[in-house]
Structure to design on (347 residues):
């Protein structure tokens, strides 16, 4: 999904959101947060997410809150940061902060866009400038990702700075996709390869090979649709199995229609194919078969229902709608009993 770079004026404090300096010195963190501009509900949210603040030293907490205020954040922005990184206020922020902020503001192009980046990943304020931020930025620039493209990637992938790693094997994978630096997908291919672990990439390539794809076909598919690297092995297996076994399509159909791998199986593919079979059984039209299948599966929900359900008389439309809704409510077999194995962050 492409991310639009927009202003974040809503996080810039106005006269009504300045910390209240003329009140009595705060006795605890709750008083300090309220003095900074948080209301009772916001204070409760922050303390619920980070109860260790009750034991925080007030002078250090005050210093960090002042840093955030100087950067242009209000209480609502603080809540978003704490929700994203509960331990954020326990990190050191003051070390080389001014130099780091100047560099990041120049990198993102404006204070407003920097604020947006911090909201998405508050830890950007804690990363080492010379050992982490600058080397990562220079690496992407050396790969031809600069300016607005680099800004978009930094915003869309909040952990890109600490997790980027490119070695000879990953560079070879990028080359095999055959993608040009002028392609709009190039920046996605490079960044996703860079933040993905090698074993994860190998596992996902091997998963597609099980369905009969050749290596060059897999890399060509990744070049056209790099976000496939963000999908789990289980997700790809289940969708591919449905395409081959239930839709009776050759596996290579996804080379032309990659959306078949992304589409939600339980709420998208299965219900629509169930309705297609019902329409066919009842001898109704328009039918969903041949090339029309792919068009129907790509339609928005509103468009799909208008074309294939609402076009019929009320009695038949109600019957088709019930079939469609019932198919959507069929739960995945043994979903509740499924054991989730946590293998760590995949990127």
């Amino acid at each position: 999904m492409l991310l639009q770079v927009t202003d974040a004026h809503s996080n810039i404090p106005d006269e009504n959101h300045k910390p209240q300096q003329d009140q009595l010195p705060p006795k605890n963190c709750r008083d300090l947060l309220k003095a900074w501009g948080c209301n009772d509900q916001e204070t409760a949210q922050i303390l619920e997410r980070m109860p260790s603040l009750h034991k925080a030293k007030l002078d250090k907490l005050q210093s960090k809150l002042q840093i955030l205020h100087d950067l242009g954040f209000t209480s609502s922005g603080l809540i978003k940061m704490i929700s994203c990184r509960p331990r954020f206020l326990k990190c050191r922020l003051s070390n080389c902060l001014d130099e780091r902020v100047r560099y990041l503001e120049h990198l993102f192009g404006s204070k407003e866009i920097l604020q947006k980046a911090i909201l998405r990943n508050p830890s950007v304020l804690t990363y080492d400038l010379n050992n982490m931020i600058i080397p990562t930025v220079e690496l992407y620039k050396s790969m031809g990702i600069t300016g607005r493209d680099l800004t978009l990637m930094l915003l869309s992938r909040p952990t890109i700075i600490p997790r980027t790693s490119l070695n000879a094997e990953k560079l070879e994978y990028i080359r095999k996709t055959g993608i040009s630096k002028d392609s709009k997908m190039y920046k996605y291919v490079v960044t996703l390869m860079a933040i993905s672990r090698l074993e994860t990439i190998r596992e996902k390539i091997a998963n597609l090979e099980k369905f009969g794809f050749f290596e060059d076909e897999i890399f060509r598919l990744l070049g056209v649709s790099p976000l496939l690297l963000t999908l789990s092995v289980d997700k790809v297996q289940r969708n591919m199995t449905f395409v081959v076994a239930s839709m009776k399509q050759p596996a290579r159909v996804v080379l032309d229609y990659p959306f078949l791998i992304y589409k939600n199986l339980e709420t998208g593919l299965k219900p629509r194919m169930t309705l297609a079979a019902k329409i066919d059984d009842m001898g109704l039209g328009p039918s969903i078969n041949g090339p029309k299948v792919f068009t129907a599966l790509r339609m928005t929900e509103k468009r799909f229902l208008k074309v294939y359900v609402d076009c019929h008389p009320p009695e038949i439309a109600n019957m088709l709608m019930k079939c469609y809704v019932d198919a959507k409510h069929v739960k995945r077999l043994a979903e509740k009993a499924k054991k989730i194995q946590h293998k760590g962050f995949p990127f």
Q: What stands out?
A: Residues 1-21 have pLDDT under 50 and may be disordered. The chain has 19 helices and no strands. The radius of gyration is 25 Å. The CA atoms of residues 28 and 58 lie 7 Å apart.
